[in-house]
Write a structure and sequence with these properties.
By secondary structure, this protein is mainly α. It has helices at residues 8-26, 32-38, 43-71, 73-91, 97-125, 131-142, 144-159, 163-183, 197-209, 211-241, 246-270, 276-299, 305-332, 338-366, 373-390.
């Protein structure tokens, strides 16, 4: 089977490539407390396995894009998928929390290939004008797997063990490797003659001096800091604080992830009627409202699952409104350096996402009599930063020439 660009099969591949990074994160969150019990690790050490995965993912963003600009999408993607599958299976055999922390860095390096090259493959096949709508539909499809992943992870954790989540994800990565090997042809029509570090730095520097590029990338990164910070904190609140099992947590968290899916769907309906930059500039208010609501409930002494999950759902809704538009805007502006632009966008997402988990972990150590306040205090600066950085889209003294 050949995956022809712009075909339904090609779009399905783009969805799958964008899904396995978030899938690896979401399927793991219900079993994080079980990891601590099995490996005799503290909750803070277990949270580090999430942080190091994102750090590896962030570092991986730096080289997959430039390598694919030079050598093509297909060979680089195959190498990344193979490395991801091998390191994921290795995680399932980790004998200690230290070993798991180290392996998660390597797993994140491999997982970055799907995210970076999925965005680059999208830009190879679609014009800049088509990108916001196409990315929005792809983002909606990508939410199916991460939405179901906590439920799957919870069942696997109770049925087998936390290690089974890595077997599941490793198998998914292996299937993608076989599909790409058998069906994907090269899509990069603007391949570089060589990897020139000075040219790469000049291209990256041009992007980082572009207010519109930053206006897309920074809100995206700060939004991911919010979502990943929630992913680090909510499992321990619901399971260790409120006594839910991993399976029950997987069912409840579907509501939170459903907020992201709903936000993406609403964005689909708005694209074409409302400018994508306008959507980005205003969506950050959902993040602020969610954290203000969570703080009010927590300070009022409301200790129940919906006081955490309800605000989390609203926060995820705001992120769902931002992601597709920000990715499309950042990558679509530089078609000849789509891989590099995708790398920078991914670096912002995962680098700032790691910062969000660290902020939550540090404040959790400090503790609070109000169960959700460490989340609110740690994440509110990121919510404000989404609004402030989106203001860069108001003025654009210079924009690069856009190519179809």
């Amino acid at each position: 089977m050949t995956l022809a660009p712009r075909s339904p099969a090609y779009i399905a591949l783009l969805v799958a490539l964008g899904s396995f990074g978030p899938l690896t994160m979401s399927i793991y969150t219900p079993v994080m407390p079980s990891v601590g019990h099995d490996l005799a690790a503290t909750p803070d050490s277990v949270k580090l396995t999430l942080t190091t995965y994102m750090l590896g993912f962030a570092v991986g963003q730096l080289f997959y894009g430039p390598l694919s600009d030079r050598y093509g999408r297909r060979p680089v993607l195959l190498g990344g998928l193979l490395f991801f599958a091998l390191t994921t299976f290795a995680c399932s055999f980790a004998p200690s929390i230290g070993g798991l922390i180290g392996l998660r860095i390597l797993q994140g390096l491999g997982a970055a290939s799907g995210s970076v090259l999925g965005r680059a493959l999208t830009r190879d096949a679609y014009t800049f004008q088509e990108m916001p709508l196409v990315m929005s539909w792809i983002s909606l499809g990508q939410n199916i797997a991460p939405s179901l992943a906590p439920l799957i992870g919870g069942f696997l954790g109770e049925w087998a063990s936390w290690r089974a989540t890595f077997w599941f994800v490793g198998g998914f990565g292996t299937i993608l490797f076989v599909i790409v090997l058998a069906g994907l042809s090269e899509t990069n029509r603007h391949r570089s003659d060589r990897i020139d570090l000075s040219s790469l730095l000049r291209g990256s520097g041009e992007m980082l001096r572009d207010r519109r590029f930053l206006g897309h990338v920074l809100p995206l990164g700060f939004a991911f800091a919010l979502n990943f910070g929630m992913l680090a904190g909510v499992p321990f609140i619901l399971q260790e604080g409120l006594g839910f099992s991993p399976r029950e947590f997987g069912l409840i968290v579907l509501l939170s992830v459903g907020g992201f899916t709903l936000g993406t769907f609403v964005n689909n309906r708005l694209v074409g009627r409302v400018a994508p930059t306008t959507i980005i500039r205003h969506s950050g208010w959902f993040h602020v409202a969610a954290l203000v609501g969570m703080a009010a409930l927590s300070l009022s002494g409301v200790v129940t699952w919906w006081a955490v999950v309800g605000p989390h759902m609203l926060l995820s809704f705001g992120t769902g409104m931002i992601v597709a538009n920000a990715n499309a805007g950042a990558v679509g502006m530089y078609p000849r350096l789509a891989g590099t632009a995708s790398s920078l966008a991914g670096l912002a997402q995962m680098g700032m996402g790691a910062m969000g988990t660290v902020a939550v972990a540090v404040l959790t150590i400090m503790g609070s009599r109000y169960i959700a306040m460490p989340l609110v205090i740690g994440l509110m600066p990121f919510a404000v930063a989404v609004l402030l950085s989106a203001r860069l889209l108001r003025t654009a003294p210079h924009a690069p020439k856009l190519e179809s």
